[in-house]
TrEMBL record:
This is Nose resistant to fluoxetine protein 6. The chain crosses the membrane at residues 63-85, 105-124, 209-227, 233-259, 271-287, 293-312, 324-342, 354-375. The keyword Transmembrane applies. It comes from Syphacia muris. Keywords: Membrane, Transmembrane, Transmembrane helix. Signal peptide: none annotated. InterPro entries: O2_lipid_transport_reg.
């Protein structure tokens, strides 16, 4: 009887809430309040965040983004766990394994991010990025305790350098002068987004000049990398420098220009060889990533490639690909929390590490979606609504700030 009474009261309560909501917004002439309320709606934002509808034809890029994220998160697991395991030699033995080269060289996948991914998402995730930095600065230190829980250095770094991450300039400073270690990727993407915007704007009238400048910049980036490695012996600057990774952006830009009309035995090594390798290998990898992407598009009739396309164009990759950057950022905090919350170092194996990486990937994905639904999308929708962006443009950017048309009419043109 109590259960029946509780159910009836719950139904009546939900009915009153719906009536009140309808009276305040749906049947009101105050369209501004109605639209703002719908901008922050958890149900609407959740549906749009998890929607598999796509508004473009380059679906394979989403699969490549998700796979690159999975590789980077798994590689970070092998890297971050080193201070927390008993058999430390296990991590060093991985370098000799040929099968683990995709993980040992995980920075290549970050290069693929820069060459393939949408730079516009860098600015879209700014609210989530801000929340993560504030979380690391104010809350993270109080989450747990134990013999392995010692993050005073990390917290002090965040207290003193959080503004460098928010201004996307942390990659210009030393590794000890930044909050989130993985934030350098976001900074690089934001800086490249600014440069790419200028290049695309200039290409409207001076396309040949822009392409020539891009090629010269690519060669200058390779030369700068060679000089940096020769003079500084592979310091971390090679990883986070905007000048060194600029060739990746240029590769993506040039491939887009070139393909656009068609798309609507090792000898003894020397220090010179290492320097040449460091200067060219990222450029070649970015070129390979873009070549793979466009080969997939052009040879869709091939049986093997068709199966690969079916996998990369899997619709489940659509909502996940929109959270790739946030997943990458969140995974660092999740790894640190999981490993340092242990009471003693653990014995690492491949299966335990992959299990930890898979769990972190899933948990990071859930956190990224929650941040998107509760923080990023409401803020983004309100901003776009206040700027007066038409509903169709907001819809195509997956920034739904529902306007004055019925909800069931939305997304009719989506594929």
């Amino acid at each position: 009887s109590y259960r029946v009474i509780f159910t009836v009261k719950k139904v009546n309560y939900n009915r009153h809430i719906r009536i009140l909501y309808a009276e305040l917004f749906y049947f009101s002439n105050d369209f501004k309040n109605k639209n703002i309320a719908r901008c922050i709606s958890i149900r609407i934002n959740g549906n749009r965040c998890l929607s598999t509808k796509r508004y473009h034809s380059y679906h394979s890029a989403q699969g490549l983004q998700v796979l690159a994220t999975a590789f980077v998160v798994t590689a970070n697991c092998y890297l971050i766990m080193m201070p927390y395991i008993e058999n430390v030699i296990f991590s060093y033995e991985l370098v000799k394994s040929f099968l683990l080269h995709p993980l040992n060289n995980f920075s290549f996948h970050i290069d693929g991010f820069i060459a393939v991914s949408s730079l516009f998402w860098t600015l879209i995730i700014l609210p989530s990025y801000t929340v993560l930095i504030l979380f690391m600065n104010c809350v993270f230190a109080t989450l747990s305790s134990g013999p392995l829980w010692n993050h005073n250095e990390l917290i002090n770094r965040c207290n003193n350098n959080w503004w460098k991450n928010l201004l996307f300039i942390n990659n210009f400073f030393d590794a000890s002068d930044t909050c989130l270690d993985s934030g350098y990727l976001i900074s690089l993407e934001a800086q490249y987004f600014f440069l790419l915007t200028l290049m695309l704007y200039a290409s409207k009238r001076h396309k040949k000049v822009v392409i020539s400048t891009a090629i010269l910049t690519l060669l200058a980036s390779v030369a700068y990398t060679f000089w940096t490695v020769t003079a500084n012996s592979l310091i971390p600057t090679v990883v986070v420098s905007i000048g060194i990774r600029f060739s990746l952006l240029v590769i993506g830009l040039l491939i887009a220009y070139i393909t656009y009309p068609y798309v609507i035995q090792a000898g003894p090594s020397t220090p010179l060889f290492y320097c040449l390798y460091a200067a060219v290998h990222r450029l070649i990898f970015a070129l390979d990533a873009m070549a793979l992407y466009f080969i997939i598009i052009h040879f869709i009739a091939n049986i093997v490639t068709g199966e690969l396309i079916s996998f990369l164009e899997w619709r489940i990759f659509n909502p996940i690909s929109k959270q790739c950057f946030v997943i990458f950022l969140v995974s660092e905090s999740v790894f640190i929390y999981l490993f340092s919350s242990l009471h003693r170092p653990f014995y690492a194996t491949h299966w335990s590490t992959l299990y930890m990486a898979l769990g972190t990937l899933v948990l990071s994905c859930i956190i990224a979606i929650a941040l998107d639904v509760f923080i990023t999308r409401p803020i983004r929708n309100i901003i776009w609504y206040e700027f007066g962006m038409p509903l169709q443009q907001v819809e195509q950017r997956n920034m739904i700030c529902l306007a004055k048309i019925p909800e069931e009419q939305l997304g009719l043109n989506a594929k």
